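Regression test case RT-17, inverse folding.

Input:
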């Protein structure tokens, strides 16, 4: 018998950091129909996440429109002193603010579940009622009377959040037990199945002003990799979605690698499946047809699967064996209804969950396409207009998409849960973006009706459903712009501008001769004497759909902000960042609804971590076009190359602002952000503190990279923070 071993993990390689786009596509790579008046902005300022939506509806209903000239509001003022960069194993917030820990990995979510021991010995079967790992995107839904959605609620609400992935070293007694390349302890695997997905907890503010969650709330729920779900929309029933779990191609178990999130105007939660491809086993391609292999290659399905789930030995019964086999995408039976050769096609979707109905079955909305979904940001909501969601596909050289509903928004659908989702999210148009060199852009429709897709030489689409399943191939076919890893999108409620984080790109994909106007930098950012070439610090793009109409197929764009060290040369630090606001690798990005015009920016960085841990910044941006055209001189060694682009006003110019608000503990990323209905509590997630701890060091707490949040010798835990202002005011202002 082989001795148990732990698998060496390449801890410094970001599992988010993937790229499978090998096409030759050019590496270029009021919404509110009327401008919001100062009066309506003030009214919006009283609203919350959903409240602003309701606010804009009521504005439309009452004909609220422009006051005409001179209606631009006084810009917001960030009212805190920026925090310094930090390498401490601690959360740092500005003077006058407090951050408390609300909800940690393993915390109980139901009566009778014991406290988390955090030593790897907690009973595996209890994890479907515990907080998951790797807290990520989240939404806070205010609770009103009858536990109905009350967007403006300030005291009590459901916090719905993603648990993207796991840090295995801290989950079991001694990391993952692996014998002869196979997982050999089923209980460890069951823990991991449950630790992915989504959690829903009831939160409330006590009379002492402290926030907590109710462990035994009837509304608490875990959604994980074993939760039954339905496939919905145009790909439902496709032959490519047939599995042994459902030969009809309409049902699937679970959701996975839930990164960022989105919301709907009717009060449901959208969770987005990002790096799902890595979980599937495809060690042998034997028996697969060429089209399926082209699909799996384009999405990065290959090898043993990152957690080796398909290899698990020792199942007690056939059902348990099936829970491992489902991660095996190899051809293992006579037909697709007897194995999971198409398992990877049942992931990569946006999933809708009704948090107000704990018994509801989540739905995978296939009309929004299958890719590495980062998030799904709802565009401006207008009565009688289509609804729009903007979506990034996070891998190197992937694309930006939007979905435009066929159905026109009717506020009578508010509160109708998944039935409203059936109406708005199952039928519509899926577009991908092309960003032109002249600052314009197009939204390109992904449909077999498009001759570029119907006649695409790179992949023969079987039918319309196949366009959604193989959305990346379809986007290749129409010549979308390859981007520097599209992460979150968010919409400025003041003007409808869409902001998009592009976290970074590597040396080969963004070499000197591979830049374009929208991804314009190629440079070196040395870290500890080692080169980091390409666009290691990332940037934030923004765009305005033509006529401020989110359903438009034309747009204009500029670069809002470039990440950089403050000490970097001017041709790298193009936004003029200073010690108070320099950052690298933007990821989370979200506009407050309680304070319209206030933007939060979160980092998931490995490039600037010689100087600082990851951070949260607050910003007051301007608008698309408030800067100027610019020719950058990129440099690689002795070689230089010019690249034209468009850069927005620098922080500090034209009333714009940017300040560092928070720095997290060691080895974490800052991600996920939500606010109470009055904007006086900000929820922020600390994901994977201490993730660079070597598995060999699990027995030696002194060598853990982090002990946050519990301190002492504790294993680190992902956790949700609640941030409040000591005087009870709006956060950030
Ligand atoms: Fe899961 Fe793209 O960050
Ligand atoms: Ca992310
Ligand atoms: Ca990321």
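Golden output:
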């Amino acid at each position: 018998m082989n001795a148990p071993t732990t698998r060496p993990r390449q801890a410094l390689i970001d599992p988010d950091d993937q790229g499978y786009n090998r096409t030759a596509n050019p590496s270029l790579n009021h919404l509110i129909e009327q401008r919001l008046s100062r009066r309506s902005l003030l009214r919006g300022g009283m609203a919350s996440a959903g409240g602003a939506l309701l606010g804009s509806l009521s504005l439309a209903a009452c004909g609220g429109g422009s006051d005409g000239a001179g209606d631009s509001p006084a810009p917001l003022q960030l009212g805190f002193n920026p925090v310094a960069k930090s390498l401490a194993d601690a959360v740092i917030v500005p003077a006058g603010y407090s951050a408390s820990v609300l909800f940690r990995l393993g915390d109980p979510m139901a009566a009778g579940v014991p406290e988390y021991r955090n030593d790897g010995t907690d009973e595996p079967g209890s994890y479907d009622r515990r907080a998951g790992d790797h807290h990520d995107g989240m939404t806070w839904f205010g609770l009103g009377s009858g536990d109905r959605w009350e967007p403006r609620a300030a005291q009590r609400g459901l916090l719905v959040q993603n648990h993207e992935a796991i840090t295995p070293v801290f989950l079991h007694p001694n990391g993952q037990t692996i014998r002869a390349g196979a997982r050999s302890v089923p209980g460890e695997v069951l823990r991991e199945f449950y630790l992915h997905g989504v959690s829903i907890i009831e939160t409330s503010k006590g009379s002492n002003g402290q926030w907590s969650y109710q462990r035994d709330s009837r509304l608490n729920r875990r959604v994980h990799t074993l939760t039954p779900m339905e496939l919905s929309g145009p790909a439902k029933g496709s032959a490519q979605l047939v599995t042994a779990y459902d030969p009809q191609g309409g049902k699937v178990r679970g959701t996975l690698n839930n990164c960022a999130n989105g919301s709907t105007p009717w009060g449901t939660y959208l969770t987005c499946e990002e790096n799902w491809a890595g979980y599937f086993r495809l060690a042998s391609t034997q028996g697969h047809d060429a089209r399926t292999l082209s699909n799996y290659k384009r999405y990065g399905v290959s090898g043993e699967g990152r957690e080796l789930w398909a290899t698990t030995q020792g199942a007690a019964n056939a059902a348990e064996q099936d829970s491992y086999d489902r991660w095996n995408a190899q051809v293992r039976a006579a037909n697709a209804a007897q194995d999971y050769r198409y398992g990877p096609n049942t992931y990569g979707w946006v999933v809708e969950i009704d948090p107000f109905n704990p018994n509801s079955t989540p739905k995978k909305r296939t009309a929004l396409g299958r890719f590495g979904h980062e998030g799904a940001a709802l565009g401006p909501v207008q009565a009688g207009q289509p609804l729009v969601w903007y979506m990034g596909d996070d891998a190197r050289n992937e694309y930006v998409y939007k979905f435009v509903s066929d159905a026109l928004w009717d506020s009578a659908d508010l509160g109708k849960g998944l039935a409203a989702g059936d109406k708005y999210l199952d039928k519509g148009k899926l577009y991908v973006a092309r960003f032109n060199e002249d600052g314009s852009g197009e939204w390109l429709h992904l449909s077999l009706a498009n001759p570029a897709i119907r006649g695409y030489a790179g992949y023969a689409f079987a039918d319309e459903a196949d366009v959604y399943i193989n959305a990346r191939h379809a986007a290749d076919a129409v010549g979308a712009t390859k981007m520097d890893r599209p992460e979150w999108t968010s919409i400025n409620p003041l003007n409808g501008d869409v902001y998009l984080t592009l976290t970074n790109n590597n040396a080969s994909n963004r070499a000197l001769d591979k830049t374009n106007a929208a991804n314009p930098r190629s440079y070196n950012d040395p870290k500890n004497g080692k080169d980091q070439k390409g666009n290691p610090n990332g940037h934030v793009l923004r765009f305005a759909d033509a006529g401020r109409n989110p359903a438009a197929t034309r747009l204009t764009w500029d670069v809002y902000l470039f990440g950089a060290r403050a000490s970097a040369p001017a041709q790298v630090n193009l936004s003029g960042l200073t010690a108070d606001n320099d950052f690298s690798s933007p990821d989370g990005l979200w506009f407050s609804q309680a304070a319209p015009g206030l933007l939060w920016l979160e980092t998931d960085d490995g490039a600037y971590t010689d100087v600082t841990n990851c951070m949260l910044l607050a910003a007051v941006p301007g608008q698309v076009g408030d800067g100027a055209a610019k020719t950058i001189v990129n440099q690689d060694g002795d070689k230089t190359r010019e690249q034209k682009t468009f850069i927005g006003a620098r922080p500090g110019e034209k009333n714009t602002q940017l300040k560092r608000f928070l720095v997290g503990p060691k080895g974490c990323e800052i991600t996920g952000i939500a606010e109470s209905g009055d904007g006086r509590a900000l929820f922020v997630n600390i994901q994977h503190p201490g993730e660079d701890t070597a598995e060999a060091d699990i027995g030696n707490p002194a060598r853990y990279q982090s002990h946050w949040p519990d301190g002492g010798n504790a294993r680190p835990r992902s956790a949700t923070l609640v941030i409040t202002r000591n005087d009870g005011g709006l956060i950030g202002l």
